[in-house]
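step: validate -> pass
step: tokenize input -> pass
step: predict -> running
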Amino acid sequence: MKKKLLSIFVCTLLFTIPLSITVFAGSEEDPEIVDETDEDVMKYLDIISAWFYEEENQPDYLFISLKLKEINPYHLKQHLTVHWDYNGESCAAGLIIGYGDPWFYYSAGYGHGWWFQEFYEQITGEYNSETGIITLKIPKDIIKNPQKGDVLTKTKAETFQRYGFIGRLGFSRFWFSSFISLSTGMSPWDGAPYQFGRDYIIQY
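step: predict -> pass
step: emit ->
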């Protein structure tokens, strides 16, 4: 009887451990952030989904993937970003395209608001034009160093084209986006989801 109970316990443990692991990490099949279908957003800014994950052999890094309907490197001043909060601090990471040299610039950090109260650094990343997926490799020490078990909240994705310098001063891009939308019928901005995506729990 004891052996039978032990066997049941071990089997249950083997089934529940993988399930508990997958709950904490997103994937393309189960992303933290999902966007609804958009018909009026420019394809190269149209968000499909985004997910957070880590790798056991690289515990000092957080990885984020952002999937778009299309990646087109020929449009100027694209900002393709993922955002979250950690301990009350706004953090973000993303790919910026079309500012010159470099043409592709991956960055991550924390802080946002008036007068450049931001602390961002260049990171490594890559994009796949066939799948529309951008992958960001973020050193944890530049995003406030989250520890195992800590929770990243208020996850969301945002893509836009920046017109002029005014956005850096904290002013809204609403008027610029509205003008472009009225002129072309397509929005140069997308955000997902409507409020926030799922939280992500740091694993390593």
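step: describe -> Residues 2-201 form one domain.
step: cleanup -> pass
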